[in-house]
Specification:
With 189 residues, the protein is an alpha+beta fold. The chain has a single domain, classed as Nucleoside Triphosphate Pyrophosphohydrolase (Alpha-Beta Complex). Strands 1, 2, 3, 4, 5, 6 and 7 form a seven-stranded mixed sheet that branches. The protein has a three-stranded antiparallel sheet with strand order 8-9-10. The chain is globular, with a radius of gyration of 16 Å. 28% of the residues are buried. This is CoA pyrophosphatase. Keywords: Hydrolase, Magnesium, Manganese, Metal-binding. InterPro entries: CoAse (IPR045121), NUDIX_hydrolase-like_dom_sf (IPR015797), NUDIX_hydrolase_dom (IPR000086). Its cofactor is Mn(2+); Mg(2+).
Length: 189
């Protein structure tokens, strides 16, 4: 874990210059030392009508509000709201990953997602809200093993594409979350 912390502290994440003109959101990747090495906390979003990420694996986070004052505060607020983990329990932000652009579905402007990485020690007491069905700890060693990487078919409108994914404990990790995890594994190696 110390090696990863040092690498993240030295890493300079690319920030999109035009992000102030976009919709903004932020997520928290919370890491801990587990039985299988460094593990990342992931949430399975609740099944909800109208939620484009319904049922998918992701990280605690959400849309930035004016009162937040920045991406870091957004990630911490959303983490507290979604899984009940107060920011003082994991306040050590050890780094951030590059901004990711989410393709707009209903809006003309894209969404820029900022990803902050935190260290957590111990076993957190969590209180999941209505947006979250489950929490898992995903070992980074599982992601680093390319034999675990699979593909999936994803269909949007009439177009079907093959996308990379992982299945861990019956959960599929793909899309934006996978891009963030790939970057984290790259920084760690």
């Amino acid at each position: 874990m110390q090696y990863l912390i040092k690498r993240l502290q030295q890493y300079r994440a690319h920030k999109k210059w035009y992000r102030r003109y976009c919709y903004r959101s932020a997520v928290a990747i919370i890491l801990r030392q587990g039985e299988q090495g460094v593990e990342a906390l992931m949430i399975q979003r609740a099944q909800r009508l109208g939620d484009p990420w319904s049922g998918q694996m992701g990280f605690p986070g959400g849309r930035m509000e004016k009162r937040d004052g920045g991406g870091l505060a957004t990630a911490q607020r959303e983490t507290h709201e979604e899984i009940g983990l107060p920011s003082h329990a994991y306040s050590n932000c050890i780094g951030r990953l590059p901004d990711i652009i989410a393709t707009p579905k209903k809006h003309l402007r894209p969404m820029v997602i900022s990803c902050y990485v935190f260290e957590f020690q111990g076993e957190p007491e969590l209180n999941l809200n209505h947006e979250v069905d489950e929490v898992i700890w995903l070992p980074l060693t599982f992601l680093a093993n390319k034999n675990n990487r699979q593909t999936m078919r994803w269909q949007r409108n009439r177009k079907t594409v093959e996308l990379p994914c992982y299945f861990y404990q019956g959960k599929r990790v793909w899309g934006l979350s996978l891009r963030m995890l790939d970057e984290l594994v790259k920084v760690a190696s």
